[in-house]
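Weekly puzzle thread! Below is a chain. First person to post its structure in token form gets bragging rights.
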Amino acid sequence: MLLIWKVLKRIAFTQTTVAKINMYVSLPHHKKGTHMSRFLEVLNEYARPLTPACIGTVAREIKERLEAEEAHLEITFTYFIEKHAPVTAARGLMDYQVTFRATANGVTDFVMGVRAPAASLCPCSKEISRYGAHNQRCEIEAAVRFDGDLWIEDLVTILESAASSPVYAVLKRPDEKYVTEAAFDNPKFVEDIVRDLAVSLEKHPQIRSYSISSENFESIHSHNAYAQISRVIRA
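Winning reply:
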């Protein structure tokens, strides 16, 4: 289902977005089916600014209201962050895909996922070419469990820092020069992006576990490149 919902932002009060929501329950063996209307009843009761704490509450309420052994809630939405170009400071809105997942089965498990676009430049191409190197857009994704509050903006910054260069919504010519040269000075294979991202998450005091990946949309090959790492730092 689709629902318009407000998400708390770190800087502004709220941001309105459109969420795709999936809700599931595991039924006891003696029940033939579930009560579909109760999903919406619970959801409508919590149509308020969306936070990780709220998601866990909704999942637990779904479990109780539908008398289920386990309940799952997944909310995916587009999140906008205003970014300034690196030289001219031209402003533009970047969009990121964010997913909140919660499972309630006596305990509540919450995972936040963020997918961010970025740029990567091939180290091999740079080494063997006389005229520059080939680069491509990549999509970096992280799904993390964490302690306390972790802002979406903070995770986006960590993801973008692992790439050869971030990408921007608005770039003037001085900005294009800066971004192009920054990527050239910071070449990375897809494996390098994921390794560097893992190092950053390992050092983060709030992160308890992560599943991360990067897909590079190759500009001179007919295939894409992909790398992935998952790890539990602490239970």
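Puzzle host: Confirmed. Bonus trivia for everyone else. The beta strands are 2-8, 14-26, 70-84, 91-104, 108-121, 135-146, 165-166, 207-216, 225-232.
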